[in-house]
Amino acid sequence: MAERRTPSGQGPARRAGGRPTPPRTRNTGPIRVPAARRTSSGSGGAAAKRTEAPRPRALTGRATVLIALVVALALAYTYPVRVYLKQEAEIAEMERAQAVQRAEIAETAKTLEKWNDPEYLRIQARERIFYVRPGETPLLVVDDKDRAARTAAEQTPAAAPDRWYDTLWSSVQAANAEPQD
Protein backbone atom coordinates (compact mmCIF):
# COMPACT_ATOMS: atom_id res chain seq x y z
CA MET A 1 0.00 0.00 0.00
CA ALA A 2 1.38 3.43 -0.94
CA GLU A 3 1.63 6.05 1.78
CA ARG A 4 -0.37 9.20 1.26
CA ARG A 5 1.33 12.48 1.69
CA THR A 6 -0.22 15.55 3.26
CA PRO A 7 -0.86 18.65 1.14
CA SER A 8 2.22 20.27 2.59
CA GLY A 9 4.34 17.57 1.01
CA GLN A 10 5.40 15.88 4.20
CA GLY A 11 4.99 12.23 4.94
CA PRO A 12 2.27 10.79 7.12
CA ALA A 13 2.15 11.85 10.74
CA ARG A 14 3.70 9.29 13.02
CA ARG A 15 3.05 8.40 16.58
CA ALA A 16 5.75 8.23 19.20
CA GLY A 17 6.09 4.51 18.53
CA GLY A 18 6.87 5.13 14.87
CA ARG A 19 3.59 3.82 13.47
CA PRO A 20 1.42 6.02 11.32
CA THR A 21 -1.94 7.07 12.79
CA PRO A 22 -4.92 5.42 11.20
CA PRO A 23 -6.98 7.76 9.02
CA ARG A 24 -10.34 8.79 10.41
CA THR A 25 -13.33 7.83 8.39
CA ARG A 26 -16.95 8.76 8.67
CA ASN A 27 -19.60 6.12 8.89
CA THR A 28 -21.76 6.55 5.82
CA GLY A 29 -23.48 3.22 6.08
CA PRO A 30 -22.70 -0.33 4.96
CA ILE A 31 -20.54 -0.86 1.92
CA ARG A 32 -21.36 -3.62 -0.50
CA VAL A 33 -18.45 -5.36 -2.01
CA PRO A 34 -19.00 -6.47 -5.63
CA ALA A 35 -19.13 -10.21 -6.25
CA ALA A 36 -15.81 -10.18 -8.10
CA ARG A 37 -13.96 -8.99 -5.03
CA ARG A 38 -15.51 -11.43 -2.60
CA THR A 39 -13.29 -14.08 -1.22
CA SER A 40 -14.19 -17.69 -1.54
CA SER A 41 -14.03 -18.26 2.16
CA GLY A 42 -16.65 -15.60 2.93
CA SER A 43 -20.32 -16.18 3.49
CA GLY A 44 -21.22 -14.75 0.17
CA GLY A 45 -23.58 -11.76 0.54
CA ALA A 46 -22.63 -10.10 3.79
CA ALA A 47 -21.80 -6.43 3.60
CA ALA A 48 -18.59 -5.20 5.17
CA LYS A 49 -19.02 -2.51 7.83
CA ARG A 50 -16.82 0.48 8.10
CA THR A 51 -15.21 1.26 11.39
CA GLU A 52 -16.80 4.14 13.27
CA ALA A 53 -14.81 6.98 14.69
CA PRO A 54 -16.35 8.83 17.65
CA ARG A 55 -18.13 11.89 16.36
CA PRO A 56 -17.26 15.05 18.26
CA ARG A 57 -20.20 16.64 20.06
CA ALA A 58 -21.17 20.20 19.28
CA LEU A 59 -20.72 21.33 22.90
CA THR A 60 -18.47 19.49 25.30
CA GLY A 61 -18.97 19.33 29.03
CA ARG A 62 -16.05 21.64 29.70
CA ALA A 63 -17.38 24.21 27.24
CA THR A 64 -20.81 24.06 28.89
CA VAL A 65 -19.31 24.62 32.34
CA LEU A 66 -17.17 27.47 31.02
CA ILE A 67 -20.15 29.18 29.39
CA ALA A 68 -22.22 28.78 32.56
CA LEU A 69 -19.37 30.25 34.61
CA VAL A 70 -19.01 33.25 32.28
CA VAL A 71 -22.78 33.90 32.39
CA ALA A 72 -22.80 33.62 36.20
CA LEU A 73 -19.89 36.05 36.50
CA ALA A 74 -21.53 38.49 34.10
CA LEU A 75 -24.74 38.39 36.12
CA ALA A 76 -22.81 38.76 39.38
CA TYR A 77 -20.95 41.84 38.12
CA THR A 78 -23.89 43.70 36.55
CA TYR A 79 -25.29 45.06 39.84
CA PRO A 80 -21.97 46.40 41.19
CA VAL A 81 -21.17 47.96 37.81
CA ARG A 82 -24.60 49.61 37.72
CA VAL A 83 -24.10 50.98 41.25
CA TYR A 84 -20.64 52.22 40.28
CA LEU A 85 -21.96 54.04 37.20
CA LYS A 86 -24.79 55.58 39.23
CA GLN A 87 -22.34 56.83 41.83
CA GLU A 88 -20.10 58.28 39.12
CA ALA A 89 -23.08 60.19 37.71
CA GLU A 90 -23.96 61.51 41.18
CA ILE A 91 -20.38 62.61 41.76
CA ALA A 92 -20.34 64.45 38.42
CA GLU A 93 -23.65 66.17 39.28
CA MET A 94 -22.32 67.24 42.69
CA GLU A 95 -19.15 68.62 41.10
CA ARG A 96 -21.25 70.68 38.67
CA ALA A 97 -23.37 72.02 41.55
CA GLN A 98 -20.21 72.81 43.49
CA ALA A 99 -18.79 74.74 40.53
CA VAL A 100 -22.00 76.78 40.31
CA GLN A 101 -21.81 77.55 44.03
CA ARG A 102 -18.18 78.61 43.72
CA ALA A 103 -19.13 81.01 40.93
CA GLU A 104 -21.93 82.47 43.10
CA ILE A 105 -19.50 82.87 46.01
CA ALA A 106 -17.02 84.68 43.76
CA GLU A 107 -19.77 86.99 42.50
CA THR A 108 -20.90 87.73 46.05
CA ALA A 109 -17.31 88.47 47.09
CA LYS A 110 -17.02 91.00 44.24
CA THR A 111 -20.26 92.66 45.33
CA LEU A 112 -19.05 92.81 48.95
CA GLU A 113 -15.81 94.42 47.83
CA LYS A 114 -17.81 97.09 45.97
CA TRP A 115 -19.85 97.84 49.09
CA ASN A 116 -16.64 98.40 51.07
CA ASP A 117 -15.78 101.34 48.78
CA PRO A 118 -17.13 104.66 50.22
CA GLU A 119 -17.67 106.19 46.77
CA TYR A 120 -19.84 103.22 45.73
CA LEU A 121 -21.85 103.69 48.94
CA ARG A 122 -22.50 107.35 48.09
CA ILE A 123 -23.62 106.43 44.55
CA GLN A 124 -25.98 103.76 45.84
CA ALA A 125 -27.39 106.12 48.49
CA ARG A 126 -28.14 108.73 45.81
CA GLU A 127 -29.80 106.20 43.50
CA ARG A 128 -31.74 104.15 46.02
CA ILE A 129 -32.80 106.51 48.78
CA PHE A 130 -32.35 109.83 46.95
CA TYR A 131 -29.64 111.06 49.32
CA VAL A 132 -28.40 114.61 48.69
CA ARG A 133 -25.45 116.38 50.24
CA PRO A 134 -25.92 119.57 52.18
CA GLY A 135 -26.27 122.49 49.83
CA GLU A 136 -27.57 120.43 46.88
CA THR A 137 -31.09 120.81 45.58
CA PRO A 138 -32.87 117.49 45.02
CA LEU A 139 -34.72 117.12 41.77
CA LEU A 140 -36.85 114.04 41.20
CA VAL A 141 -38.11 113.34 37.69
CA VAL A 142 -40.99 110.91 37.51
CA ASP A 143 -41.26 109.40 34.08
CA ASP A 144 -44.50 107.44 34.25
CA LYS A 145 -46.36 108.05 31.03
CA ASP A 146 -48.92 105.29 31.59
CA ARG A 147 -49.98 106.64 34.99
CA ALA A 148 -50.17 110.18 33.65
CA ALA A 149 -52.44 108.99 30.83
CA ARG A 150 -54.73 107.13 33.29
CA THR A 151 -54.91 110.14 35.61
CA ALA A 152 -55.75 112.44 32.72
CA ALA A 153 -58.49 110.11 31.54
CA GLU A 154 -60.03 109.88 35.03
CA GLN A 155 -60.17 113.63 35.66
CA THR A 156 -63.13 115.62 34.45
CA PRO A 157 -62.27 118.33 32.00
CA ALA A 158 -61.91 121.77 33.57
CA ALA A 159 -64.51 124.42 32.80
CA ALA A 160 -63.56 127.13 30.40
CA PRO A 161 -62.05 130.09 32.24
CA ASP A 162 -64.37 132.98 32.88
CA ARG A 163 -63.90 136.25 31.15
CA TRP A 164 -62.14 138.89 33.28
CA TYR A 165 -65.13 141.12 33.67
CA ASP A 166 -67.31 138.23 34.82
CA THR A 167 -64.69 137.46 37.49
CA LEU A 168 -64.66 141.11 38.55
CA TRP A 169 -68.40 141.32 38.77
CA SER A 170 -68.64 138.06 40.80
CA SER A 171 -66.07 139.39 43.30
CA VAL A 172 -68.03 142.65 43.69
CA GLN A 173 -71.16 140.66 44.39
CA ALA A 174 -69.35 138.49 46.92
CA ALA A 175 -68.04 141.56 48.76
CA ASN A 176 -71.51 143.10 48.84
CA ALA A 177 -73.01 139.93 50.26
CA GLU A 178 -70.69 139.81 53.29
CA PRO A 179 -72.29 140.83 56.52
CA GLN A 180 -71.00 143.95 58.26
CA ASP A 181 -69.72 143.54 61.78
UniProtKB/TrEMBL annotation:
Region Disordered: start-end pairs = 1-55
A Pfam short name: DivIC
* InterPro entries, per database record: FtsL/DivIC
Where, by residue number, does the polypeptide cross the bilayer?
A: 59-79
Record carries keyword Metal-binding: no
Biased segments, Low complexity type: 9-30
This protein's source sits in the domain of life called Bacteria
Provide one Gene Ontology biological process annotation.
cell division
Answer yes or no on keyword Amino-acid biosynthesis. Answer: no
Q: Which UniProt keywords apply?
A: Cell cycle, Cell division, Membrane, Transmembrane, Transmembrane helix
Listed name of the protein: Cell division protein FtsB
- Organism, as annotated: Actinoplanes lobatus
